[in-house]
Amino acid sequence: MYTLESTQTFEQEIKRSRFQAVSGPVATEAAARDFIETYSELSAGHNCWAWRIGSRYRFSDDGEPSGTAGKPILQAIDGQSLDNVAVVVSRWFGGVLLGSGGLVRAYGGTAAACLRAAPKSLVIPRVPAQVKVGFADLAIVKARLLAVPDLRIEEEVFTEEGAELALALPELETAAVRRLVSDVTSGRSILLVSI
């Protein structure tokens, strides 16, 4: 799965109607609602949208015939294997009726073109984890942890004995990092994974 790195805009004219798509990354449902509110054009006749965050998704036809706008936008998101993404497609009517099939192609195609043009990054599922480590082992543990691809040290809190490290750990690396921490510290520190 991939997500967008930044907001992207794409615009095209289809049979004198103007379609403008704005896509962007969203992490929560509240962020998706804010994105839709921010990028809906008040001057447009329709502001149709869709978003996907994991298994949760929503879409709206905003007055267009049922199934002709929101669902094709969602299919454009899913068709490019995207997650944590919202798309708003605004339409200014140009006087020519497009019909149901034409609307599906116009909304879905505009969203897909916008998404194709957007810079993407791989979504890496992470789990929160914690490690308590003494001062003697701190430097080597941090160096080894930072060498693990896609692992992030989110917080470092110093204690009397050493430090507590809060990690964002790539889910697939949990067992390997657990062994690494134990081996490097000769069993003095262990990795605790929160689920």
UniProtKB/TrEMBL annotation:
- Give the Impact N-terminal domain ranges: 15-115
InterPro entries annotated for this entry? EFG_III/V, Impact, Impact_N, Impact_N_sf, Ribosomal_Su5_D2-typ_SF, UPF0029_Impact_C, UPF0029_Impact_CS
Q: Which Pfam families match?
A: DUF1949 (PF09186), Impact_N (PF01205)
- In the UniProt record, the signal sequence range is none
> Entry's PROSITE patterns?
UPF0029 (PS00910)
The UPF0029 domain extends over 131-188
Q: Which domain of life is it from?
A: Bacteria
Q: What family classification does the UniProt entry report for this protein?
A: Belongs to the IMPACT family.
Write the protein's name: IMPACT family protein
